[in-house]
Structures are given as C-alpha cells and as structure tokens.
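ok so for the tutorial part 2 we go from a plain amino acid sequence to predicted structure tokens. step 1 is just haveing the sequence, like this:
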Amino acid sequence: MIDAFTLLLLTVDATLRVATPLILCAMAGLFSERSGVIDIGLEGKMLIAAFAAAAAAAVSGSAWVALGAAILASCAFALVHGFACISQRGDQVVSGVAINILASGLTIVMGVAWFQRGGQTPPLAPEARFMPIDLPGAKAAFDFPVLGPIYQEVVSGHNLLVYLALATVPLTHWIVFGTRFGLRLRAVGESPQAADTAGISVAWLRYRAVLICGVLAGIAGAYLSIAQNAAFSREMSAGQGYIALAAMIFGKWRPWPAFGACLLFGALDAVAIRLQGVKFEGFGEVPVQFIQALPYVLTVILLAGFIGKAIAPKAIGVPYLKDRT
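step 2 — the prediction. this is what the tokens look like for a chain of 325 residues:
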C-alpha cells in the first residue's frame, strides 16, 4: 500500500516527465510569436523531429546522432514556415496548418517505406536512447526524512532532456527580457516599423527566432521517441503541440507563467493516468475515454476563459513589408 506522501512524489515525478515536451514547445513558440510569427506548426515540427530521431537512432545506434537529426528535421520545417511567412509574406496560420498536415503524412509514408512497420520504427536499444540518470547520492538520500525521498523520486532519475527542458525556462526568460537580442525580438513583435527605423533587420531577426523555435521543437520531438518512448509510432505527438501553444497563450507569452501552465497540463495528464482502473465509491470506475480527454477539455476551457485576457504582441500574424519610399 502506497502512502499519500509517496503517491504525491510519484505524481510530481510523472508530471515533470509528461510536461517536458510541452515546456520545450511552449518556449519554442514563445520565441517565434514574440517576433511576430504565429506558429501553429509546433505539432508538425515535433512530429517530424520524433520520427527523424527514432529513424536515426535505429540506423546509427546513437542517441546524440538521433538528437541532431531531430533538430535538423525540425529546423528544416521551421525554415519552410519562415520562408512562407517572412520572405513571401503568406498567411502564417495556413502555413502552420500545412506543416502539420505535411508532417503527419510524411512520417507515415517514410516509416512504411524505410521500415515496413506500418509507419513505426524498430524498437530502440538502451544505448540509442536517453536513459534515466541517477544523481549522486540518490539512493543513500532515501533514508533522510522528507528531503531524501524528494531528492530520489523527484529530482533524480530523469533523463538528460528533462533537465534540459527545465533549464530552458530561466534561459528563455533571461534571453527575452535580459539581453539585447531579446529586446530587439520584442521590438520586432510589437512594432516592426519602429525596429526597422532603428536599423534592425526585421526579416533576419524573425528568421533567427523561427530557427530557435525549430531547435527547441526538435528537442521536444526527440524526447518523445528516444527518451520517453523507445520508438516512433504514428501521430505520437497526439496534439501536444497544440496544448503547448495553449499553455503559451495562457501564460501571456511569458516563460514562467507558460511553464506553470505546462505543469498544470502535465499534472492533469499524470493524474489521469493514475486514475485509470480506479473505482470510486458510489460512482464506479472512471471511463478511460473521459480520462484521456481531460487534458484537451482543459485546453478548450483555458483558451475560452483566458485568451481574451491575454494580450498578444501587437504585430503578431502581420507580414512586414519594408517601406521603400
């Protein structure tokens, strides 16, 4: 019988693991949208990165090669989005949706053509994945009351990409609000005309923001297929890119509130997993379908209740045409 404290620690531990791709994608979208480029395509970039990582890991047997392949694939899609929206001044929402559709179909086609497994990749060996890391003293610390179990169950035992995702939150906050690049990024997202007048290349800065978005979304995709799981499966992103986008909007395009929203979604998902098969007195067993739908229902509720209060960058979604007069 698991006591309440241990159950709480296990739930927090699961929350961090589940929230990792959401955190990475939320930070990715924040860079893109702070520069004025809407990124509905987070889902597609994460999905193509997950496939690229699993395919590269299956061929090379190296998790680091797989991570590099994931980042390259995601950045390639990010550049396509940037070319359509920044250079050609196309509709940013349509471009993002097109990327999602392309990634969805392309991963299945390539998976069938390369591995003949119905769109899946072969199971990966432990050396081809990012495995959990036991931090120094984790086992010995278990005997210490309260802090020992927290250190062992919550702090230790995650893979490298979980720690990297957590590190991206303060790093993103520092870059966006504490550096010259971040100041210019926000200026371009708020008033590209004024930024251009000050000598800032709007297009070049937006391309850099889109590429940073591609890198982070690529890491999120790699986490899905070579860290959280041991292979790629069809549509394995399962709408997490959209949930990350909702978390970013709920966080009002700021890193720490967006991080909190990601943890909220992750906690709900972790609790939902633990509720499967549990029977409540007077109610019975909670339907699995209801539990699986909870994160998406919460997404709709949060967007319906908070999107009107979240003030987006003023120039978001508006293509910039340089005045040559």
